[in-house]
Every structure is written in structure tokens, then in C-alpha cells.
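User: quick one, fold this
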Amino acid sequence: TAHVVVNGIETAEHTRVSCNQVQWVWFIESVRESPGFTAQVRTGDAVAARLVRIENLGGFTGSSWNATVTAPSTPSGVGADAEVA
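Assistant:
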């Protein structure tokens, strides 16, 4: 499951996700499209969200590409519990 934080507030929905890794990028996608989210998280020396798309989570719908978005998960934790803040 994923714990999603929007504007510093954790959404009530703890979303089931599927995770796939291609080289240094994790593709994390909620099983349900709405409410749900899609994220691409680059790992390596630093963990950085490359793409985040949120659909009706915590009353929020929107997306960000290569913006200042924090992804506090450690690379080893992305597969089990992903948190996109």
C-alpha cells in the first residue's frame, strides 16, 4: 500500500499499488485509477520524483513533472511502502 501526502496532509486512502523497476527508475501505480496515482521515482545517489499524477486523492487532482517534489522513501522501501509527498 501507499501512504500519499498532499500539501503536507496524509490522504485517508491507503492505496494498493503495483511497482516495477527499470534501471534506476521505479514506476509506482495505484491499482485503482480513481482515487489513485501514478509516480516515477528515480533512485541512486538521491531519490527524486520525476513524475507524479494524482487523481482525486484527498480531494486533489493534478500532476507534476520534474518539479520540486519530495519522495522520502528509501530505494529499498519503494516496493513495499511508497510515500509520495
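User: anything notable?
Assistant: The CA atoms of residues 3 and 20 lie 18 Å apart.
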